[in-house]
Automatic annotation (TrEMBL):
Its EC number is 1.5.1.5, 3.5.4.9. PROSITE patterns: THF_DHG_CYH_2. Homodimer. The lineage of its organism: Bacteria, Pseudomonadati, Pseudomonadota, Alphaproteobacteria, Rhodospirillales. InterPro entries: Aminoacid_DH-like_N_sf (IPR046346), NAD(P)-bd_dom_sf (IPR036291), THF_DH/CycHdrlase (IPR000672), THF_DH/CycHdrlase_cat_dom (IPR020630), THF_DH/CycHdrlase_CS (IPR020867), THF_DH/CycHdrlase_NAD-bd_dom (IPR020631). This is Bifunctional protein FolD. Residues 142-288 form the Tetrahydrofolate dehydrogenase/cyclohydrolase NAD(P)-binding domain.
Length: 296
């Protein structure tokens, strides 16, 4: 057994969800505000259906009104954009989420660009990426990296001056994660598939975030003793007996013997992502109504 503290994402997500639910109850009571989230699913991708169902259930649990749009896999690009423009103009809808991936005939960049940045609760619009990068007000921050930051802060209260390495440079996880840790005054390295000595970059990190999509890529001997390790990866691998299981990008057994604190997979980053989506929807609704936004 390892010695690292386990960062319990389910528990932290439950706490955040409770706070969001309480804030929504008081917004309804004092401002007659019921936040609304439109969730757009295109096609029959089974994993996407599960994610969307989970998001709609969470909306119900916290008091957000959900507007689910399940569209056929062969919908035309223009028709999807027309739907999004309609949602942009619908006052009941404070947040819009289009579940990725999208079918081949759809241009995902055009879809993301069409969402009103102030309703872009996934935080993927270039305007929100720019706000986050420059510190301009009004950013909606992507849910997964924001959840990671909350997980890190649950163990590391003083982040300034720490070395942080993020493995992965995607627009939805790696890059916004780097911006968030830079904002916390960490010294940030972004490592990726072309990094010359990945092990050394990881070993230098007080805070290590793995967002790659390669099962157990990061082993214990890549980890600085005492480091905080956040495992974003979700990888399904075969196990003896013909079944499969989920593992992260970090080799949990060897890493937890060295790290100071570590997230498990499942039960780490995943639950925080949905809780942060609820948070973003509440924040977007408060901004649209010119109400003071809660600190969450
Ligand atoms: P992505 O495929 O867009 O990006 C992966 C990144 O990893 C790329 O920047 C690439 O340069 C880097 N990379 C690939 N191979 C590498 C290697 N051998 N060494 C170093 N870097 C390498 O993926 P993503 O969307 O950022 O997601 C990453 C992982 O996180 C996936 O497993 C995904 O399922 C998971 N994920 C989880 C959540 C969650 O809520 N828990 C949310 C989003 C993504």
């Amino acid at each position: 057994m390892g010695k690292a503290e386990i960062i319990d994402g389910r528990q932290l997500a439950a706490e955040l969800t409770r706070k969001v639910r309480d804030e929504i109850a008081s917004a309804r009571k004092f401002h007659r505000l019921t936040p609304g989230l439109a969730v757009v699913l295109v096609g029959e991708n089974e994993a996407s259906k599960v994610y969307v169902r989970n998001k709609v259930q969470q909306c119900e649990a916290v008091g957000i009104k959900s507007f689910a749009h399940h569209l056929p896999a062969d919908i035309r690009n223009d028709d999807l954009l027309t739907l999004i423009r309609g949602l942009n103009g619908d006052d009941r809808v404070n947040g819009i989420l289009v579940q990725l991936p999208l079918p081949a005939q759809i241009d995902p960049a055009a879809v993301l660009a069409t969402i009103d940045p102030d309703k872009d609760v996934d935080g993927f619009h270039v305007v929100n990426a720019g706000r986050l990068a420059t510190g301009a007000p009004g950013a909606l921050v992507p849910c997964t990296p924001y959840g990671c930051l909350l997980l890190i802060k649950s163990k590391q209260t003083a982040l300034a001056g720490l070395k942080a390495t993020i493995v992965g440079r995607s627009n939805i996880v790696g890059k916004p994660m780097a911006q968030l840790l830079l904002n916390e005054n960490c010294t940030v390295t972004i490592a990726h598939s072309k990094t010359a000595d990945l092990a050394a970059e990881c070993r230098a990190a007080d805070v290590l975030v793995a967002a790659v999509g390669k099962p157990r890529l990061v082993s214990g001997d890549w980890i600085k003793p005492g480091a905080t390790v956040i495992d974003v990866g979700i990888n399904r691998v075969p196990v003896p007996g013909g079944t499969t299981r989920l593992v992260g990008d970090v080799d949990f057994n060897s890493a937890s013997a060295v790290a100071g604190a570590i997230t498990p997979v499942p039960g780490g980053v995943g639950p925080m992502t949905v809780a942060c989506l609820m948070r973003n929807t509440l924040i977007a609704a408060c901004r649209q109504r010119h109400l003071e936004e809660p600190e969450l």
